[in-house]
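Homework help board

Subject: predicted structure for assignment chain

Our instructor gave us this sequence and asked us to write out the predicted structure in token form, then describe one feature. I got the tokens but I'm not sure how to describe them. Can anyone check?
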Amino acid sequence: MLDGSVTDGDALVVGVGSLLRGDDAIGRLVAEEIERRAHAGVTTRTVTQLVPELVDEMSRASTVVFVDADVAADGPTIRAVEPSSHGPLTHHGTPESLCRLAHVAGMSCPPAYVVGMPAERFDVGHDPSEECLGHIDAAIDIIWDTLRGRSPFPLPGAAEPL
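My token output:
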């Protein structure tokens, strides 16, 4: 959902994936669970793919966490996003290209991270696997730790660990 309602300074969690392709839905499901738990100061979005329209909301956030399926992951992983310095700016993006687009458009890109979720099955018309779903709570823990400043990466202005 893209409705432009990120409050300045909120953290933004973007769940990426297709609900029609098995484990590809996992990023969206993690974001929906974060939304269900309703923490103040965190806005969630679910999208099928990363598109330039996200840049405006990203620029108003304090931190952005993208959550997406990752066939190479054995468990939830996290990495920092470094804006790409080259390459085309297309309609479909990566976290790196969206940060680059923000800079090209004169907007800021806050600290950004990607949580990769283990995924194996991408068959059309299938539900996510139980193995994939079993990693949701661990991913949410990684996201909360990151937003609280306990990530393996420094967060400028992050609150002290609880």
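Reply (TA_rk): Your tokens look well-formed. For the description, you could write something like this. Helices lie at 26-37, 54-60, 95-104, 130-133, 136-147. That's the kind of observation they're looking for.
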